[in-house]
Amino acid sequence: MDRSTNLDIEELKMTREQYILATQQNNLPRAENAQLYPVGIYGWRKRCLYFFVLLLLVTMIVNLAMTIWILKVMNFTV
């Protein structure tokens, strides 16, 4: 059991070379006319997301309305 724990710790240790490569600055030249890609949700994905949010909102409102209606019909009191 001690050996397997020791092996796991050894796998998690970062070597000196990995540390240097991860922390050094990137000095690669950049193109002046680099094409920028838009970030976000566009097209049918956006419509589906809006539809899903609207569906959740309607479901919540109907659920709340039915809960209040059941409380009134069953004559529950606070």
Automatic annotation (TrEMBL):
Name any Gene Ontology BP term: cardiac muscle tissue development
Residues annotated as transmembrane? 49-71
Q: Which GO terms describe its cellular component?
A: cytoskeleton; sarcoglycan complex; sarcolemma
Predominant subcellular localization, coarse grouping: membrane
Listed name of the protein: Zeta-sarcoglycan-like
Q: Which InterPro entries match?
A: Sarcoglycan, Sarcoglycan_gamma/delta/zeta
The family assignment reads: Belongs to the sarcoglycan beta/delta/gamma/zeta family.
Membrane topology per the record?
Single-pass type II membrane protein
Gene name of the encoded protein: LOC101381630
As for subcellular location, the record says: Cell membrane, Sarcolemma; Cytoplasm, Cytoskeleton
